[in-house]
Structures are given as C-alpha cells and as structure tokens.
Amino acid sequence: MADILDTLLDESMLGLVIIVLVVVLSTGYVYIQQMQAPAGGGATPRNANVPPGTRGNVQGGGHMGAAAALAVNAIATANLTEQQMRLHRSLPSRHGARTITICVDSLLRDKESDRIAWITEDTPNVLADLLQIADVYLLCVVADEKNKAMMERIRSFLLTSHPALAFDDKTKRGLKTHKILFCTTTIGKIAFVRQIEPQFHVEVDKIAVRDLEKHVPRIVHVTSTAQQDAPVGPAAHHVADTFAGYFKLLSALAGP
After folding, report:
1. Which residues are listed as membrane-spanning (predicted)?
2. Cβ(184)–Cβ(142) below 8 Å
C-alpha cells in the first residue's frame, strides 16, 4: 500500500512540474514576441483600410507611412486651367490626392475593331483634364485575353491618338501604360476597382455599378437609358448619357 502511495505522489509531482514548465515557457514566448514587435503600433493589418496606392507601403509606419505615400500623389494646383480647377473643386479627394477609375467603354466605340474611335470629339480633352487632377486608371473588358494584338491596338490608341494625353515627365501627369488594365469579365473589372480603391469611378455596366456602390464614394453611370436602368444608392450620385457631357456639366455647375 505504501509503495502505491509513493508512486501516486511521484506521478503527481511530475505532472505539477510539467504544468509549471508549460506556464513558464508560454509566458517567456509572449514576452519575447512583445519585445520584438516594432514600435508605433506594428505592421498594418492585412485588411486594413488604407488609402489607394499605399497598401504595402505602410508596414511599421501606420498613418505616417500612408500620409507620406499620399503626399507623393498630391495634386499641384498652381498650373491648372480654370476648367481643371473647377473639376478639382467638384470631385472627391483624400488628403490632397485623388484616384479615378474609368471604364474604357465610356470613352471608346468599336474598341476591338479597326474602327476604334472616341465616343465624342471632346472625350480626350476631358480625359486630359482629369489626368491633371487625379491618378487615373483605365479599365478595359475584352473578349479574348490572348489577343495581344487587339489589346496593343487599344492601348496604342489611348496613348497616342491625342497629344494632351501624353505623359509629362516634368509634371508627372498624363496617361501611363501600366495604368491601362485589361480583363475579360465584369467580375474582373469590379475586382480591379476594389483593389485600386478610387474616390471616383466611371462605369457603363449597371451590374458593376450596383456591386461597387458600397465601396466607391462616388460613381457616374454612363448610360443612354438612364431613366429606366439607373441604379439607386448613396454612392451612385450621378447618371449621364456621355462621359464628356457629365464632366463638362459638372465644371459649369461649379461656377467661376
């Protein structure tokens, strides 16, 4: 009987020692992790709501990193024309910077053919004005992502058909090749917009508008059947029959 009691006591002591060791090791691990954590709040959470273009640039820097990235894209107003200044005052921005995404179908007709053309004569001029007051991405849905020649024709037309759209190394404004993005579905286009996180989006597809109205502060739905098909929502503030017509009206309403 005594031997049995001694054995039970030995096993109890061993179990207690193991529990104490586990607690000590766990406490030490947590302490080491806290000591190694960077000052200033640590890395930005993966799904944090950071300004467009700053995701991945704010590690360990929090809001200071985001502000620094935005400062690079801040809009310089000194050399803006009166038309551009009116648009600048009328469009939403964030911390002095602005990102706009535009569906190419609101700009071009017959985009996948040799007859590719601007929808209206003043479309490229209005686009050029937006390029001076925003970081602009053009989103193009195509039927075949393997048709490289067709995508290059669209890209070349956008970049070279109007001199006002050319990128200026001095002002760092103008249309950039890598900001003309292609996809084959509306879902792909929606994914682009949500990744870019613009303050303003121009769209022709009512399905895309309805999906994005919860994520984009302001959307313009360009459609010839606005009265019948225009979606309703807090972000889809405006509906227009043409891209250029909307922004020209917006500029006129802004006043002198």
Report:
1. 12-32
2. yes
φ and ψ at residue 115, rounded to 5 degrees: -95, 20
CA-based radius of gyration for the chain: 27
User: In this model, does residue 40 exceed pLDDT 60?
Assistant: no
Residue 231 CB coordination number (10 Å): 19
pLDDT tens-digit readout, 179-221: 999 999 999 999 999 999 999 999 999 999 999 988 999 999 9
77 Ramachandran zone, left/alpha/beta (phi>0; psi -120 to 50): alpha
CB 208 within 8 A of CB 103: yes
d(CA 38, CA 95): 26
pLDDT digits (tens, 9 = 90+) for 50-98: 334 434 333 334 444 444 445 556 777 778 888 889 898 889 888 889 9
Query: How far is Cα 133 from Cα 100, in angstroms, rounded to an integer?
Result: 10
Q: What is the CATH number of domain 78-254?
A: 3.40.50.1000
Q: What is the pLDDT of residue 168?
A: 84
Separation between Cα atoms, residue 240 and residue 199, nearest integer Å: 18
* pLDDT (0 to 100) of residue 171: 78
On average, the pLDDT of the chain sits at 77
